[in-house]
Amino acid sequence: MGYSFTSRDVDYLDSVAGRDALSAVAGFVLTPATMLRDLDTLRRDYGDRTAALVETVRLRRRAAAKLDDAAEWLFTDDALQQATPSLVARHRARRLAGRFVHDVTCSIGAELAALRRECPAVLGGDLDRVRLEMAAHNLADAPNVALVQADALRPCSAGAVVIADPARRAGGRRTHDPDQLQPPLPELLAVYRDRDLVVKCAPGLDFDRFALRRPDAQPLPGRADRTAADGYAGLSWDGEVEVVSLDGAVREACLWSRGLTESGVTRRATVLRSDGSSWSLTDAEPGDLPEREPGTWLVDPDGAVVRAGLVRHYAARYGLWQLDPRIAYLTGDTVPPGVRGFRILDRLDFREKPLRAELHRRDCGPLEILIRGVDVDPDALRRRIKPRGSTPHTVVITRIGRTATAFVCETPRVESAADATDPV
């Protein structure tokens, strides 16, 4: 759970004495192996301030991989866990450039730090006074940012785009139940139903269940077995759902109200990378695909594409096609930039004995086994196959129609932007 900071702690850490103490504590290792020894030394100098100092230094070290310019920031453990990575926050801020924005769950100010560079005026609100005091410290050099202690469900601004990031823990555990978020998602959407609204959600939230407001239970994109009638009780959304990944890891799903997105767009996948490159895909693009036998390569799209239900649109953009309409693996004769491509060496119905024999014949050594759409334990299967050779291979086991199929492939490679050209 981490140390529980108080306003007294924030006042001290924000003082000259606190800053000097933090600088001194930053010189200690503070790893599990050294912690007891370090604490004994620090308590002699800082007494009951030691816990707040040590926690702050450790949180700053963790924040370095996630947030820009956070070396002097103040955090709580929970606030840092939920803080939006700077690259993701900057992407969202660019979509809101020039607008007055009110972040109603601003916490320690990670989102505000990105918004202040793109927006003429930014208001941050939070119920937690300690986090607001930390945000005031973190954004002390931002003249266009104001802070207010307020309940997110009691609007205190007018004319602003509202951003909210409901807390995703209930009873100390992470939750994907919209009613258990803080503030609860149904109440949040109801309170701001007439405002331009952006809501950050955990990527594990099943947004298919509330992403469309439609009385006719038509299949949702990419989910042939799921219809609009299967939605969360009391929840509906007629705007855009954007799924964002950073360096291959899906970070969040973000709801954008209709006034903040392009006409006809209800789904968007955005792929960000630390090198500054990015691209997006929406459901306004074509999604018609040919039905063909597997090509030279298997392609595993970025997780943002899969979570956004845009596998067919991605395939159409790059001249690929599907192995099976229910499976996210794609196939084709080229590999798009920035994704893993598996060159197919052989294809066989998945039966363990023939697969083992084929891999031994190919002198298989290091073996990666990928599973999608079939109930197979890859670690247990690898132990039974007992690869003893020297050549790395990847086996992709998936379902085509009703048949479990194994593709024996070369070790995957990732095409870079220098190797291929994005056609869009």
TrEMBL record:
It holds the Pfam family Thump_like. InterPro entries: SAM-dependent_MTases_sf, Thump-like. Residues 339-410 form the THUMP-like domain. This is THUMP-like domain-containing protein. It comes from Nocardia africana. The lineage of its organism: Bacteria, Bacillati, Actinomycetota, Actinomycetes, Mycobacteriales.
